[in-house]
Each structure stands twice: as C-alpha cells, then as structure tokens.
Design a protein that fits this description.
methyltransferase activity; S-adenosyl-L-methionine; methyltransferase; single chain; Rossmann fold; alpha/beta
Length: 241
C-alpha cells in the first residue's frame, strides 16, 4: 500500500500536488468539525466546494472502483445488482416510483447517471454543473419523515456521522434502505456495521474493498436500536509536511 501511494504521488504535477494539499486540509476540516460549521464555511467561501471536489476527483483516479459507479449500476439494474461476492446489494426490484436521497452528493454524478429516477441530492453548496442540488445540513434535512425510499452516503459521513445516520433513519420510509460507502481506514467493516445497526438499521449486505467498504441496511422498527448510538469513525487527519 505504501509503495502504491508513493507511486501515485510521484505521478502528480506541481499544480496537482497543490490541489491535493488543499483537498487534504479541507477534508480534515470536514471530518473534524460539526456539520453546521462546514455548511457556514462553504457558504461564506464558495470556492472551497470546487477546490474540495477537484481534489477528491484527483484522489480517486487511482481507485479501481468508485462507489458512486457501484451504486449507479445498482439503481439502473436492480435485478442484476450483484458484486463479485454474489451477494445482493438491494432488496428492491424497481426504483421507478421511489425517491432516492443522495446525501453529500458532490457533483451529483449519481443523479446525472440516473436522470430517469426521482432524486433529491443534498450537499453544502450547489455546484455549477448541478443546479438542482439542494443546500442542506445532513443532520437536519429539509424533508418530512418517511419522504425517502433510499438514502445514500457515498464517502460523505463527515463531521457528525451518528447524527447524520439518525436523520437518515427519520427521513426513510418504513420499507426504506440505507446504502453506505465508507473509507476503510476510518473503521473496520464489522465495527462500522454494528455502529449503524445501533441507530435502528438491519444490515443485509456488506463487502470490503481496498479503499472503502459498502454496507446496505433496511430500516428496523422505531426503538429497535440499542438506544446508545455506537457509530465511531476515525477522522482523516493528515501529517503536516
């Protein structure tokens, strides 16, 4: 792994290294401060959003698989939504009449790839390339209880993950599903699943990849969780160079 990272770093141009450094700084801030503070920062400094996602795209160029593409394929082909392990990613067979919430959507690639489906995409700012994105604090979404059939967090559980998952539980319908892709270094998969289930979800799919893991859940009955939310994710904190 160390050799791979070194190889990726040496391939970057000077301008790309600057973008990567800005991304690391912003990423650390997003992981370590309350969601409301991040929302305020991005509203006061609109250029931060573009800088962050430009750096993010640069980071993912070395990945063999982007979780957004994984989720997009599942939405387009739910009957064939199987990964290399042949486990089912979703229990739903059709998304045509369902509402999907993409929380922390970035440039809203997921909605763009599935323009025939009903989406609400949320993030800290509206990107120029996706004017339909709604600005929102992920711990307090502008949506009624039960408004969503699927909630997706694709590498976006930052700041206050326990509150974000509790909010997803609130906005999901009784038959709703939660799909999460998370950086593997933040939490081992089994520990992560246990934390999400403490909110009240039941895991029916999990798979570990090199850079991230994916887990999918159905919504349990109200009060089914442990009563003590156990979601603990290590923030991405970088060494100063």
């Amino acid at each position: 792994m160390k050799n791979h990272k070194k190889s990726f770093s040496t391939k970057l141009s000077a301008s790309e290294k600057v973008k990567s450094a800005k991304f690391r700084l912003l990423n650390e801030q997003l992981y370590t401060q309350p969601t409301a503070a991040s929302l305020t920062a991005f509203q006061e400094n609109p250029q931060l959003f573009a800088q962050y996602h430009e750096g993010f795209r640069l980071q993912t160029t070395s990945w063999q698989l982007n979780p957004v593409d994984l989720f997009a394929d599942c939405l387009q082909n739910p009957q064939n939504a199987q990964i290399s392990t042949n486990k089912i990613l979703t229990k739903k067979t059709n998304f045509a009449n369902l509402t999907i919430f993409d929380i922390g959507c970035g440039d809203a690639k997921l909605q763009k790839l599935n323009s025939n489906l009903t989406f609400r995409s949320f993030d800290l700012q509206v990107p120029e390339t996706a004017p339909f994105v709604e600005v929102a604090d992920a711990t307090n979404l502008p949506a009624a209880a039960g408004a969503a059939d699927v909630c997706i967090f694709s590498l976006s559980l930052m700041g206050e993950p326990a509150k974000m998952l509790s909010e997803a539980f609130r906005v999901l319908s009784d038959s709703g599903e939660l799909w999460v892709a998370e950086v593997g270094s933040r939490s081992p998969l089994d520990q992560f699943v246990k934390g999400v289930e403490s909110v009240g979800f039941r895991c029916f799919y999990r798979c570990d990849y090199n850079y991230f893991h994916v887990s999918c859940y159905e919504k349990g009955a109200a009060g089914e969780g442990s009563g003590r939310v156990l979601v603990r994710l290590r923030p991405c904190v970088y060494k100063r160079r």
